[in-house]
Amino acid sequence: MELKLMMEKLGAPQTHLGLKTMIKEVDEDFDGKLSFREFLLIFHKAAVGELQEDSGLMALAKLSEIDVALEGVKGAKDFFEAKVQALNSASKFEAEIKAEQDERKQAEEKRRLRQAAFRELKAAFST
């Protein structure tokens, strides 16, 4: 599912069978999943020409690289800055979620403290 979502976000959506074929192509331990090592193997195979030109893995490799000789240093700089910006925006989203969770925890802690203080006052007036 993660591979499917990644391919969609990169603008190269794949069918379920296409995704299974992609995984089989680099699945060294035959568990039907991609480990980090197997994910890196995609780029190694692309670099040495072991991937078919029309395969989904080749599309993934091409979407994740830039030819500095063709694009020039400025093009490569722009490419990597765009990648960093995309990662940062994802990180900002995660930071916002974490901040909301922290706020909820603090609000819950304040509520517990208020309840404890109320119980103490109630006990003082009950006796």
UniProtKB/TrEMBL annotation:
The keyword tRNA processing does not apply. Keywords: Calcium, Coiled coil, Metal-binding, Repeat. Residues 14-49 form the EF-hand domain. The keyword Calcium applies. Residues 83-117 form a coiled coil. PROSITE patterns: EF_HAND_2. SUPFAM superfamilies: EF-hand (SSF47473). GO terms for molecular function: calcium ion binding; calcium ion sensor activity. GO terms for cellular component: mitochondrial inner membrane. It comes from the Eukaryota. This is EF-hand domain-containing protein D1 isoform X2. It comes from Neophocaena asiaeorientalis asiaeorientalis. The gene is EFHD1.
